[in-house]
């Protein structure tokens, strides 16, 4: 009854690592079917238009009549026209406000308040700080348009503390309009970043801080060597979200300044809209759109890479 | 961790300052909304004679009831379907994890950083070609597509954490793929589905670019989209504009206050996973 | 009658062969254990029988039909997973009855079957609970209950006890044995634990590297291992393996081995071994006993007292170490020198290729 089969005695069984996609062909076919509807929607309303964008960007077209093949001329315009370059620059300037303020301020605040977020007080804080994320961006734009108006709260405050010479029509000022728009964005994003960072801090093992204190670390050291590294992921998320918001901004600018005065607050998102639908320059608009997309990718990639999971 | 009393006060003070800064714009809008019509109120001041009627007038002038209906219809058109097909796709992609098929997932991920402006122009022509310009479908259909990268990413992340032997057990129990999906996986995915629904609801309700470009009639837009037209019409009447804006942001704020725990959780996870 | 047959079954993952040609006959009602080290392919084989993995080559038959292309649910099998795979959002009642519900079984019948299974497994009081509220052993039972109600032709168990603590494992082992007696069903059981294999199996299939090393009853494998792998795998503590050289002697080749004492010749070599060859000699720890006239002398390195026996780790003059399992409670200390003896019939000889030599 004993069946003896030959086998080399010292055949080391290589532990075979199962490839992740186990199961039969039928599994794979079923999986495809499950993915299909989402993919069709995505392809129809994102991928196809994206390809069309690329196609349009090579044309000279007014959206109605004949289209002319234009090669890369539109891209040359985008990269050399001083107005367009300024517009792109505006977006990056907004990054300073949309990203730096919420992240830096958020870090400072989060480090200070991390142990005070419990209970009722914490819930109220969370609720209030998230309000800007819940309202439409245009509503935030209108709220701040009013704040920045000549008789708005900002000027009122300045006058009250004796700086009435500083009061002005902020959103109509050639120098201050862009920073003002930046403030709006910072206000919208500050709460989210603060909350993300606070949550991130609570995830840091408290015993790290205790060990550091025993090693003689002062608060600044604790911040630099424990808090900051522990918050890498969250900081990465904050930067990603805020940079995208800045570069792709449209709503806030449309409603608060319409891009003015002049083009001091015009951002690529707004200009694409204008070029395509007001100035009837579809080719140029599309080229700008593609350039914007590339800029977003280039800006996000390093952040993602730096904060990738190193486990 | 011992926290000394002064630190505690500073911390709480800081929080309160933050909250005030957050609430100020709302308060200033409120005070302006209560000022007499057509006037230029002076910053933040509680008016002597609060004109609550401004809200009523804004409601009527902007036809808020219609706007509420319109936004609701759009949300109903976008969110359930998006959540459904994204859940299906997330499940499918979670089961297709070998490197050969990873590219399919990456195609979706690519769309995560795509600004809507990059595709708005062709979308216009596409929607026009479909004959849907100026209808709510002009907003609904593209949004479903535009939400897929995030939604699929979100649901896939959930399904990756479900042990595979659950599927196998269901197979052995005689479940077809579809039955297993509905009877086993979807109930398990409820938290992720809820969070996704909240996020998509928010983004749809507050959507501005698509309505503005693709739909002329404010009554067919989202409330946020209608605000653009509203500003054009009544921009010089600050009290009315502020009242209207407050009304427009009221629904999401109200829902947020009621469901704030779920909203906050969803928003935070949404940012992290996005 | 539902036995199980595997003919030349192979499985590749891409280009990597994982199961390299397995032939097996399992009779109806047998309790068969697939045993082997990690990566040997035992789970893969089980999953191929279940229908959860594609079969690259060969045939799997349940009863008298080939089931290679048959869906898992139609094969007449039920499986108990290592991690139980209970549906977290369903009660125990619904978990157990899920398969029946899918099959459209009328509620009354379904209810009866669920309660029967619950009674057999003594878990009637758990029917309303969710898996999260159960202990490991209880979840195990629910998983088994889910398999029982399907009344399968073949029960498949994938390392079901490895997630339980040692004490519980012993109890569950007995329950499984009892279950097999009560149901009389064919059961295929995968484990890496040779004690489970020895105690539960009617027939053990030892696998290594995707190839069947030996098939037989537990005692057959213990007494007559077919090769070095099986010899070393079955039995605890592990069998001692020593080297012997074939040396030309007066009446033909003999084996020279340290165990026969330094430099002593000992027993004629098996007939077909040329002089100069090498042979492995196996001796189980339990075959050794204290014997002042024994041929093994060495220095004690380690003593483990288990109460009913004493395990001694002995270093031979050459430095090689062997293990002896001595009955009772011996008064032995490390650094002592002791002498052990054994019976010639306890020796197992293996050739250079690892195969067993029958002298």
Description:
The complex is a heterotrimer of chains A (311), B (274) and C (359). Chain A is mainly α and 311 residues long. Chain A is built from 13 helices and three strands, in the order E-H-E-E-H-H-H-H-H-H-H-H-H-H-H-H. In chain A, strands 2-3 form a two-stranded antiparallel sheet. The longest helix of chain A is centred in the N-terminal third of the chain and has 33 residues, at 25-57. With 274 residues, chain B is mainly α. Chain B has one domain: MetI-like fold, CATH 1.10.3720.10. In chain B, helix 3 (64-95) packs parallel to helix 6 (137-160) and helix 11 (223-234) packs antiparallel against helix 12 (238-258). The model of chain B has no long low-confidence stretch (mean pLDDT 85). Chain C has helices spanning 42-50, 92-102, 107-120, 136-149, 166-183, 194-200, 218-223, 228-233; strands at 4-13, 16-26, 31-35, 57-62, 65-66, 77-80, 154-158, 186-191, 203-208, 211-216, 240-249, 252-257, 265-268, 278-283, 289-290, 296-305, 309-315, 321-327, 337-341, 348-350, 356-357. Chain C has two domains: 4-224, Rossmann fold (3-Layer(aba) Sandwich); 240-357, Nucleic acid-binding proteins (OB fold (Dihydrolipoamide Acetyltransferase, E2P)), CATH 2.40.50.140. In chain C, strands 6-7-8-3-9-10 form a six-stranded mixed β-sheet, with helices on both faces. A six-stranded antiparallel β-sheet of chain C has the order 13-12-11-14-20-21. A five-stranded antiparallel β-sheet of chain C has the order 15-19-16-17-18, with no helix packed on it. Chain C is of the alpha+beta class. Chains in contact: A-B, A-C, B-C. Strand 1 of chain A pairs antiparallel with strand 10 (211-216) of chain C.
């Amino acid at each position: 009854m004993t069946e003896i089969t030959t086998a080399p005695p010292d055949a080391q069984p290589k532990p075979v690592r199962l490839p992740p996609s186990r199961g039969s062909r039928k599994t794979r076919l079923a999986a495809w079917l499950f993915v299909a509807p989402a993919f069709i929607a995505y392809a129809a309303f994102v991928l196809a238009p994206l390809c069309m964008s690329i196609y349009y960007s090579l044309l000279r077209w007014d959206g109605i009549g004949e289209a002319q093949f234009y090669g890369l001329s539109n891209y040359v315009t985008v990269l050399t026209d001083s107005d367009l370059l300024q517009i792109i620059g505006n977006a990056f300037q907004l990054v300073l406000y949309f990203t730096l303020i919420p992240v830096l301020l958020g870090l400072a605040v989060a480090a200070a308040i991390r142990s005070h977020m419990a209970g009722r007080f914490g819930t109220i804080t969370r609720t209030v700080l998230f309000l800007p994320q819940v309202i439409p961006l245009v509503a935030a734009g209108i709220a701040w348009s009013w704040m920045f108006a000549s008789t708005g709260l900002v000027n009122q405050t300045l006058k009250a503390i004796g700086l009435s010479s500083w009061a002005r029509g902020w959103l109509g000022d050639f120098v201050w309009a862009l920073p003002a728009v930046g403030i709006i964005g910072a206000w919208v994003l500050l709460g989210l970043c603060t909350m993300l960072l606070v949550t991130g801090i609570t995830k840091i093992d408290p015993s790290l801080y205790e060990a550091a204190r025993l090693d003689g670390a002062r608060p600044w050291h604790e911040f630099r060597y424990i808090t900051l590294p522990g918050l890498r992921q969250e900081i990465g998320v904050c930067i990603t979200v805020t940079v995208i918001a800045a570069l792709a901004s449209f709503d806030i600018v449309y409603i608060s300044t319409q891009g003015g005065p002049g083009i001091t607050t015009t951002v690529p998102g707004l200009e694409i809209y204008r070029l395509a639908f007001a100035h009837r320059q579809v080719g140029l608009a599309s080229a700008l759109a593609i350039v914007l997309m590339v800029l977003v990718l280039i800006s996000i990639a390093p952040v993602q890479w730096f904060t990738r999971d190193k486990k | 961790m011992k926290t000394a009393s002064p630190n505690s006060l500073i911390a709480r003070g800081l929080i309160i300052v933050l909250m005030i800064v957050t609430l100020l714009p709302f308060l200033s809008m409120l005070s302006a909304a209560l000022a007499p019509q057509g006037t230029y109120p002076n910053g933040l001041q509680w008016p002597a004679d609060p004109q609550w009627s401004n809200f009523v007038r804004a409601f009527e002038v902007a036809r808020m009831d219609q706007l509420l209906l319109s936004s609701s219809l759009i949300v109903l058109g976008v969110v359930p379907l998006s959540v459904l097909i994204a859940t299906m796709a997330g499940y499918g992609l979670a089961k297709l994890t070998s490197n050969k098929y990873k590219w399919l997932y990456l195609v979706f991920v690519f769309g995560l950083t795509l600004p809507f402006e990059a595709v708005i122009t062709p979308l216009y022509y596409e929607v026009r070609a479909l004959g849907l310009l100026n209808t709510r479908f002009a907003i609904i259909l593209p949004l479903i597509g535009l939400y897929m990268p995030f939604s699929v990413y979100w649901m896939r992340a959930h399904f990756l954490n479900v042990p595979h032997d659950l599927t196998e057990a269901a197979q052995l129990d005689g479940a077809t793929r579809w039955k297993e999906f509905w009877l086993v996986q979807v109930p398990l995915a409820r938290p992720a589905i809820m969070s996704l629904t909240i996020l998509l609801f928010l983004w749809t309700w507050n959507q501005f670019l698509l309505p503005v470009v693709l739909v002329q009639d404010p009554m067919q837009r989202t409330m946020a989209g209608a605000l653009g037209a509203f500003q054009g019409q009544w921009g010089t009447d600050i009290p009315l504009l502020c009242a209207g804006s407050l009304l427009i942001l009221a629904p999401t704020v109200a829902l947020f206050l009621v469901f704030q725990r779920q909203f906050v959780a969803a928003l935070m996870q949404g940012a992290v996973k996005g | 009658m539902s036995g199980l047959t595997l003919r030349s079954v192979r499985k590749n993952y891409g280009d990597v062969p994982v199961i390299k040609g397995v032939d097996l006959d399992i009779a109806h009602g047998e309790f068969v254990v697939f045993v082997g080290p990690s990566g040997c392919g035992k789970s893969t084989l089980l999953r191929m029988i279940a229908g959860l993995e594609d079969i690259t080559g060969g045939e799997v038959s349940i009863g008298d039909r080939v089931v290679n292309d048959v869906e898992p649910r139609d094969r007449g099998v039920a499986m108990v997973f290592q991690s139980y795979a209970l549906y977290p959002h369903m009660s125990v009642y619904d978990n157990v009855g899920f398969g029946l519900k899918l099959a459209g079984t009328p509620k009354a019948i379904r209810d009866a079957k669920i309660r029967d299974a619950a009674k057999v497994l003594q878990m009637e009081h758990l029917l309303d609970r969710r898996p999260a509220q159960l202990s490991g052993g209880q979840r195990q039972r629910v998983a088994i209950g889910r398999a029982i109600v399907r009344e399968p032709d073949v029960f498949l168990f994938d390392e079901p006890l490895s997630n339980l603590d040692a004490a519980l494992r012993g109890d569950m082992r007995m329950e499984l044995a009892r279950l097999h007696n009560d149901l009389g069903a064919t059961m295929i059981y995968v484990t890496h634990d040779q004690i489970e294999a020895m105690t539960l199996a009617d027939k053990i299939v030892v696998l290594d590297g995707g190839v069947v090393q030996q098939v037989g009853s537990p005692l057959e494998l213990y007494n007559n291992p077919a090769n070095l792998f099986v010899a070393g795998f079955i039995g605890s503590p592990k069998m001692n393996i020593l080297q012997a050289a074939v040396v030309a002697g007066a009446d033909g080749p003999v084996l020279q081995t340290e165990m026969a004492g330094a430099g002593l010749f000992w027993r004629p070599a098996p007939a077909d071994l040329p002089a100069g060859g090498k042979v492995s000699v196996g001796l189980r720890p339990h075959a050794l006993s204290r014997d002042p006239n024994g041929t093994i002398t060495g220095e004690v390195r380690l003593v483990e007292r288990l109460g009913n026996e004493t395990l001694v780790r002995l270093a031979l003059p050459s430095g090689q170490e062997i293990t002896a399992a001595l009955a009772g409670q011996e008064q032995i200390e490390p650094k002592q020198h002791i002498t052990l003896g054994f019976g010639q019939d306890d020796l197992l000889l293996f050739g250079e290729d690892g195969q067993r030599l029958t002298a």
